[in-house]
Write a sequence for this structure.
């Protein structure tokens, strides 16, 4: 009897401590609602999109404190957003396809277009894309293209095309750099194999892509996104597949680095601004949006990070050395060839594909 | 025998050189005036001033410090309480906690992520502290237990015989004796928490960035001598803490 | 009656002190593992047990990845053992006393340095314009592409885990009385025989601790393969993080974690038996 009582007391003690621990874990989130810094905004973004000096200017002008946090990949954004209760960040800057999932999971709220006078400054080419047909939830802030960066001292072939990446006979040097993102890799392979992109991929076509990527592995030095510019400038690889932004940053310091669009059509990527569904700081959010979309902020960021703004005036006045390619404006011939790539596979099919590829 | 007598020291010297070459190069280049990959261009401290002006790094550092100190404090105090509580039991109950240090970090991190998501606990500083405390307990327990075993139990009996309550004995007899081990366990916990990467990678929310995560994202985007400067400072910090630890604990890593 | 309860409560005071640590362990060590198991076997929270997720990971490609990680861990542990044992032997038994503290300090310091700082340092050295290549071109040899290769990854793993091996070895070797070695040599055994029959069996505990410390931690390594090896091949750590962060398929990710943990535990047991047998063989040298 005493023994039973002893064990009951022991279990009660343990349960009591577990309850205390649980309360401590959950408590801070309750605190945050009540005593949170009311005049503040939290932004969750890619690196190299918003500069801290600009943030200081905004803070001085309006008195709103802004906290920046960075994520490495779009999926990381989705995962972490679904984990934390929605009060964690107010504004996010995801890329295209993620926005569809966010809309479906009700993670973001509709944008009140009446409070966005800057909308008319944005090119219509960037509005109304497949992931948000009426731009109810997202506003395009920056855009970029995915293509080929190369070392002009070592590469003679003009025009630069996908053969430099996929054809063994045309490889310059020992290795090339390839993207680690599955979507970009599939896009490149599909363009090289001339598979039409507007139809859903059949299993045979997927197999073709998989075989090509497999063959390519033999001469790929590294699968990464952000390191490619660095590898190019340090002579590690002569040719890399990468975003224009990363190559452009290297181009500013090195004359021999050049960027080329894929002749068959490069991928267009839009970075849009979305508002978290659970935020209640709408006034401050729209103030910040106003600020971000203003001419001087866009131009400053474009020059600092080599990204491309979506607004007319900012893009027109941007020096070409920050763009990297001449004539890359909406409405021109080369712009018309850009593709907004919508991958028809489900996330699960994509996983299976990519893991099968990387596993061997 | 003679050959090995002279070869072993040389071999050992080479191994130590190998262990330290990357770190020495890293530290040297943090003082380089030029950026990377330029060759040595002269001595300069301007990377350090860049480091001090970067607000991001300070925020990451602040987060790291908060997490490290809280989790170390929690793990050391819980370990002491546990070891004091289990004095009556003959079985080695401390063995229950060995798994913390032995399970691969990734399994722990994944499990914690799954746990927090199912219980709808928001990820953030608190969850990070919880994970690091777990690691800290795994390291602190053996150290404190080792020191506790050296305590002559008759001292406790004597103190109780002389009329002191158990609480008094604990505060005035046991704790001072354990003091070196407590300090060592605390410092070790802090260092482990600072260095941890996997648990922070999996279990931090969108707002918390620790120093390890910051360096990871910097490596992803290439080389920057500011990271060299940061690494040098971290190294000096570890050096200093280790020095203190070794002063207090000669048998630091006994089995 | 109340007195009775008071007495029982008083006798449980010591358990009161033990409770927080136990509660913590239960919450954050046991429960997460349970959750992982439950994620891999159940579709919903602890309901409808199914093995479909396990079947999805029971593929050749996944086993290949697990084997690759095991190979990495084994080679790292073995290399560390080969190099670490002589060093620990020297520091523990042969080094002059004053030098010993300094040497221990120098071994422990990398262990306590941030892993990423060390990885960054290697990145710095191995890349195209780093120190090694500059030296090679200075000497006249061909400048190679050292980074983004399996060689670089093994090198960095070896460097990072060497202190992990040296420390337990040192602590067991330190306990060996030098006179026993002298006695064995005096009795006519060769140096090699002394090593095999006296020193190694006495230090077997340290060898096991060191080997398994390195093996366990390098099996689930994530940072080094993903930063140094160019991400050309998946390892257990990178694949698990891929499942959880990019694939967002937690069930399959958990199933893979369970599968790799199971294979891993089997391998640990296997190595235990192997090490024991090895020491027995050495006894008969």
């Amino acid at each position: 009897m005493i023994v039973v009582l002893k064990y009951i007391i022991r279990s009660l003690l343990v349960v009591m401590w577990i309850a205390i621990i649980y309360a401590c874990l959950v408590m801070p989130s309750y605190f945050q609602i009540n005593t949170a810094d009311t005049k503040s905004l939290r932004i969750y973004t890619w690196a190299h999109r918003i500069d801290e000096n600009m943030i200081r200017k905004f803070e001085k002008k309006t008195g709103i404190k802004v906290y920046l946090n960075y994520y490495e990949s779009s999926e990381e954004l989705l995962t972490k957003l679904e984990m934390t209760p929605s009060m964690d960040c107010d504004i996010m800057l995801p890329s295209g396809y993620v926005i569809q999932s966010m809309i479906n999971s009700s993670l973001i709220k509709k944008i009140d277009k009446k409070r966005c006078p800057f909308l008319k400054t944005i090119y219509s080419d960037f509005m109304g894309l497949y992931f948000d047909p009426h731009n109810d939830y997202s506003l395009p802030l920056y855009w970029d293209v995915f293509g080929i960066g190369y070392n002009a001292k070592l590469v003679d072939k003009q025009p630069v095309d996908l053969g430099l990446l996929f054809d063994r006979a045309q490889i310059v040097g020992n290795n090339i750099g390839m993207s680690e993102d599955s979507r970009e890799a599939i896009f490149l392979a599909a363009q090289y194999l001339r598979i039409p992109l507007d139809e859903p991929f059949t299993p045979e076509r997927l197999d073709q892509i998989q075989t090509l990527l497999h063959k390519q592995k033999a001469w790929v030095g590294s699968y990464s996104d952000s390191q490619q510019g660095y590898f190019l400038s340090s002579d590690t690889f002569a040719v890399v597949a990468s975003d224009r932004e990363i190559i452009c940053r290297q181009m500013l310091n090195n004359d021999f680095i050049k960027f080329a669009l894929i002749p068959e059509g490069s991928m267009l990527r839009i970075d849009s601004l979305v508002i978290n569904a659970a935020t209640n700081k709408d006034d401050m959010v729209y103030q910040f949006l106003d600020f971000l979309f203003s001419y001087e902020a866009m131009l400053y960021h474009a020059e600092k990070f080599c990204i491309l703004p979506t607004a007319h005036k900012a893009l027109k006045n941007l020096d070409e050395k920050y763009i990297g390619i001449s004539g890359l404006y909406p409405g021109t011939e080369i712009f018309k060839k850009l593709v907004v790539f919508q991958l028809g596979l489900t996330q699960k099919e994509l996983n299976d594909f990519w893991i099968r590829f990387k596993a061997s | 025998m003679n050959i090995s007598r002279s070869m072993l020291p040389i071999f050992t010297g080479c191994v130590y050189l190998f262990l330290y070459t990357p770190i020495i190069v890293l530290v040297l280049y943090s003082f380089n005036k030029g950026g990377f990959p330029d060759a040595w261009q002269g001595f300069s401290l301007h990377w350090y001033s860049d480091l001090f002006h970067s607000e991001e790094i300070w925020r990451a550092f602040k987060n790291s410090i908060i997490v490290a100190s809280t989790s170390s404090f929690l793990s050391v105090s819980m370990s002491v309480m546990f070891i004091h509580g289990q004095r009556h039991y003959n079985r080695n109950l401390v063995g229950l906690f060995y798994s913390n240090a032995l399970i691969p970090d990734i399994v722990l991190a994944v499990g914690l992520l799954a746990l927090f998501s199912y219980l709808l606990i928001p990820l953030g500083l608190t969850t990070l502290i919880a994970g690091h405390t777990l690691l800290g307990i795994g390291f602190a327990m053996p150290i404190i237990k080792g020191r506790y075993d050296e305590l002559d139990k008759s001292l406790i009996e004597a103190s109780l015989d002389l009329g002191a309550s158990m609480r008094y004995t604990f505060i005035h007899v046991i704790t001072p004796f354990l003091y070196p081990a407590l300090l060592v366990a605390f410092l070790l916990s802090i260092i482990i928490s600072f260095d941890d990467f996997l648990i922070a990678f999996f279990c931090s929310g969108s707002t918390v960035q620790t120093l390890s995560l910051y360096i990871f994202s910097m490596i992803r985007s290439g080389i920057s001598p500011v990271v060299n400067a940061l690494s040098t400072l971290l190294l000096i910090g570890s050096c200093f803490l280790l020095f203190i630890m070794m002063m207090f604990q000669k048998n630091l890593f006994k089995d | 009656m109340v007195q009775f309860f008071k007495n029982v409560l008083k006798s449980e005071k010591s358990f009161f002190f033990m409770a927080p640590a136990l509660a913590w362990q239960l919450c954050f060590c046991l429960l997460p593992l349970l959750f992982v198991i439950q994620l891999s076997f159940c579709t919903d929270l602890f309901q409808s047990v199914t093995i479909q997720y396990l079947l999805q990971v029971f593929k050749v490609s996944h086993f290949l990845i697990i084997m690759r990680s095991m190979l990495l861990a084994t080679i790292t542990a073995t290399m560390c053992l080969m190099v670490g044992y002589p060093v620990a032997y020297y520091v523990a038994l042969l080094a002059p006393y004053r030098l010993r503290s300094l040497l221990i300090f120098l071994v422990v310091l990398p262990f306590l340095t941030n892993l990423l700082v060390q990885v960054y340092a290697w990145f710095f050295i191995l890349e195209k314009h780093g120190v090694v290549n500059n030296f090679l071109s200075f000497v006249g040899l061909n400048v190679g592409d050292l980074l983004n290769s399996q060689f670089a990854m093994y090198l960095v793993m070896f460097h990072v885990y060497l202190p992990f091996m040296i420390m337990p070895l040192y602590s067991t070797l330190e306990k060996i009385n030098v006179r026993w070695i002298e006695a064995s040599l005096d009795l006519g055994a060769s140096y090699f025989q002394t090593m095999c029959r006296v020193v190694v069996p006495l230090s077997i505990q340290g060898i096991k601790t060191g080997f398994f410390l390195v093996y366990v931690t390098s099996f689930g390594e994530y940072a080094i393969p993903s930063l140094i090896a160019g991400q050309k091949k998946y390892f257990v750590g990178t694949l698990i993080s891929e499942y959880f962060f990019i694939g967002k398929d937690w069930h399959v990710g958990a199933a893979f974690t369970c599968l790799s943990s199971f294979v891993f535990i089997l391998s640990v047991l296997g190595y235990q038996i192997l090490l024991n047998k090895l020491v027995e063989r050495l006894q008969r040298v």
Observations:
- The CA atoms of residues 58 and 278 of chain C lie 33 Å apart.
- The interface with chain A takes residues 8-9, 11-12, 15-16, 19-20, 22-24, 26-27, 61-62, 64-65, 127-129, 145, 147-148, 230-234, 239, 242-249, 252 of chain C (CB under 8 Å).
- Chain C has 14 helices and two strands.
- The mean pLDDT of chain C is 83.
